[in-house]
Design a protein that fits this description.
It is a single chain. The protein is mostly helical. It is built from five helices and no strands. Helix 3 runs antiparallel to helix 4 and helix 4 crosses helix 5 (about 105-119). The protein has helices spanning about 5-15, 20-45, 50-60, 60-95, 105-119. The longest helix is centred in the middle third of the chain and has 38 residues, at about 60-95.
Amino acid sequence: MLESLPLIGIAAGIAGPALLLAFLLNGIIATLTGLSYAELGSAIPVARGSYVWVKIALGDFAGFLTGWCSWSANSIACALYAVTFGAFLSKAIVRMLGAPLPQGTVAKVSSIAIISLLT
């Protein structure tokens, strides 16, 4: 089961038996973040990103930094999803074909193909 969710497998290796506590804390933080976004969205009804709220509250430079941090986080998340999906796809291709293909190479090629198709 953990091989289908590689990041949870890594987290289980690091957190050990405290994995459930880590997920609970993550859920609490995500809930508070969602509530904060809802409150800010109703207080400042501007249809843009969170950088606008920071810009209004803290000024132009802080809004600029927030926008770039948000962009960086989304880019890293996209790369993580592409690499993870590439690993899953390569494992499926190697198992379906039964061919002795190097899984690392297939994962790299499929990750590059996914990113190329999405951009």
